[in-house]
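Why does this matter for the project? Reviewers at the last site visit asked to see concrete outputs rather than summary tables. In response, this paragraph embeds two records directly. Each consists of the residue sequence and, immediately after it, the corresponding structure tokens. Nothing has been edited or filtered.
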Amino acid sequence: MERDGQLELYRLLAARLKETHTRVSDPEVPDDTRRELTRRLLAVTAAAKHDLADAARRLDALTAELDDLGIPDR
């Protein structure tokens, strides 16, 4: 049963990563900002391979920053 729970957590995190990638790649985001956000998004993706909870926390922080920067959801 725990394995099913882990798979669901991976699915949820993957969906959130995909949404965040869409936001970061918005053409309205300045190049310098996009590079930094992309670097952080890659770090979150790498963290997800080892620690889902840490990756989720990092993604929460990145999403909050996107909100603060006014980068819209698509």
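We now turn to the second protein, recorded in exactly the same manner.
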Amino acid sequence: MRLLVPITLSILVTPLFADNYEDNLNRWELFIDSNQWGSSSDFWLEKKTSYGWEKVILVFGYADDYDSCDDVKTALEVKYSAAKYRCMPAN
């Protein structure tokens, strides 16, 4: 019985945060898509998860944002060799 209340609450509350997360992510992506920072395109560093490719870092403000994103990607792949990362254009 003690577990029933937390489990029930998590089932009821999780969709509220999931919808809010998706809405916030969509607004953020739309903003980034139309607001390039600096002279080169900005890039998302994405990580492959069991849910698909997830955005984890936005790289912007460098002379060449792709090269900077690739540097971060390489460093993470060295540290976490089982993980897969990629750099994707944000705008």
